[in-house]
Design brief:
7% of the residues lie in helices and 58% in strands. It is mainly β. It has one domain. A hairpin with a 3-residue loop joins strand 2 and strand 3 (53-55).
Length: 358
């Protein structure tokens, strides 16, 4: 079981910032807390009403959620047409949070009765801060991750005569560190609302979509005490690489669409595909290294499904970023790729406790 102090620190760093149009400081008015019995009869009204969506950020929203965050990487063998896939021991955290105006905070915990497979997959230390900031006109993604302790997911494809279900190949010495930030402008922001699907501080009333355009920079490093390629595996003939560092940067372009079904049900789909410039360095056990400038394919699906009503909402969402280094350079017989992302299940309730005085 992970130490409670580590889990508290990780999850207190999770600040899901929900942005709304701020009011002029000179127009800030007093608020009063109404009696809970009286609030039952009060109609929950939006702060702003648009033809395509309503803004409910003036309501205090309390929610329960479960969330899983991860980072994975793999090496593709050009000759074998197979990939060596590494993954940390992933964990599902559960907790609670709130959204009010521009602020949103979620706190989740690692419960031992859910995550109790350290003997099978090894123990993973982690600090994972993935934040998606959904504004009216922009979406900003921020990543900072540190993971220590991985295992091979597809041992049956890597080792000769190894069958699925056998003991996993655990690598406690492998560490990864990554940092990235990117943003995209939402062109059709008057009709399309990302916040309605991923933060539930708005309700999309009519189906609408939008093109997005922006940029990103992403840095990643992985290292180990010995080669990533086990000698007894099909990858044992590759150069003994034990460190790989990369910087990716480029333009982002995407299209997103919110489909509204029977007024309150929604399906939000977004897909981004871009080619970045990648600057890479690969180090071998004999202290030699290879540097390269290569194209990198960046894919990002983003999806949310659920129900969103004035008083309550529920659903699930996920965001995934995949980077594929595209190179047939003879200097390297394998190609590196990585995936980061998170999956979230939630249920929440809005309350009209803080009402502006007339």
């Amino acid at each position: 079981m992970k130490k409670l102090s580590i889990i508290l620190f990780i999850n207190l760093c999770l600040l899901t910032i929900v942005y709304t149009q701020s009011a002029d400081i000179a127009n800030i008015q007093k608020y009063k807390l109404q009696d809970s019995v009286a609030s039952k009869t009060k109609i929950i009204k939006p702060l702003y009403s648009h033809p395509y969506y309503d803004d409910y950020s003036n309501q205090l929203a309390l929610f329960l959620y479960a969330k899983q965050k991860y980072t994975r990487f793999s090496m593709y063998h050009h000759d074998l047409k197979k990939s060596l896939e590494y993954s940390p021991n992933e964990q599902l955290n559960m907790g609670f949070g709130f959204n009010y105006k521009w602020l949103g905070i979620g706190i989740a915990f690692n419960f031992g009765f859910v995550n109790h497979d350290d003997k099978q997959y090894g123990k993973t230390k982690r600090l994972d801060m993935q934040t998606n900031i959904y504004m009216k006109k922009m979406v900003v993604d921020f990543y900072f991750q540190y993971y220590e302790g991985f295992y091979i997911k597809n041992v049956e494809d890597i080792f000769p005569d190894r069958e699925q279900g056998h003991e996993e190949y655990i690598r406690p010495d492998i560490k990864t560190l990554s940092f990235g930030i990117g943003g995209m402008y939402v062109f059709n922001h008057d009709r399309f609302s990302y916040k309605s699907a991923f933060k539930q501080t708005a309700i999309q009333k009519k189906s609408a979509g939008s093109f997005l355009l922006g940029g990103q920079i992403f840095l990643e490093g992985i290292g180990a005490d010995s080669s990533f390629f086990p000698e007894a595996s099909h990858f044992g003939n590759l150069p003994k690489a034990n460190e790989h560092n990369a910087v990716y940067f480029g333009v982002l372009s995407a299209y997103a669409y919110n489909l509204i079904i029977r007024k309150h049900f929604f399906v939000s789909m977004s897909f981004m595909a871009s080619i970045h410039l990648g600057l890479t360095n690969t180090y071998l056990e004999d202290n030699t290294h290879h540097s390269n400038s290569i194209p990198v394919l960046h894919l990002q699906p983003r999806m949310a499904v659920g129900i969103n009503k004035p008083k309550w909402y529920a659903g699930f969402s996920f965001v995934r970023d995949s980077f594929y280094e595209l190179s047939d350079d003879e200097k390297r017989e394998w190609a590196y790729s990585s995936n980061i992302g998170h999956f979230r299940i939630f249920i929440g309730r809005r309350f009209s406790w803080f009402i502006k005085e007339e």
